[in-house]
Write a structure and sequence with these properties.
There is one protein chain. This protein is an alpha/beta fold and about 120 residues long. It has a 5-stranded parallel sheet. The longest helix has 13 residues.
Length: about 120
């Protein structure tokens, strides 16, 4: 996130594998805003960082027989939603950057919040 970059919409995702039925809506909202050409970012923190671990999102199904959380994450990414992780939350969840399903920026809250706070809309999910 550059100093001059203006985010239109930020979702600070705190919900993780403990509440799978809550997850799809966050990704749908982010995807819809990005498809509408808004600059959208999702910041994964707390339990949500577990979703970034290789193989985890593929095993979480909000609706039995439905799509996995990995499918919802891909939809968001395909629509242009950028995703970053909380560096401190990785440690909290016993993870390192090597555990992530893909390379992505990792920021501490103090590094992320100035840019996140400048967004037009911020939701905590």
């Amino acid at each position: 996130m550059g100093d001059t970059e203006r985010l239109d919409f930020v979702i600070i995702l705190i919900t993780g594998p403990e509440n799978p039925k809550r997850l799809p809506s966050a990704f749908f909202l982010a995807s819809t805003a990005a498809a509408d050409e808004q600059n959208v970012l999702m910041y994964f923190t707390g339990p949500a960082t577990e979703l970034l671990k290789k193989g985890v999102a593929e095993t979480i199904f909000p609706l039995r027989g439905g799509k996995s959380v990995a499918d919802f994450m891909k939809l968001a990414s395909d629509n242009g939603v950028r995703m970053i992780g909380c560096a401190q939350s990785l440690e909290l969840n016993g993870m390192t950057a090597a555990d992530l399903f893909r390379e992505m920026p990792l920021l501490t809250p103090s590094a992320a919040l100035p840019s996140l706070a400048q967004a037009g809309r911020v939701l905590t999910w």
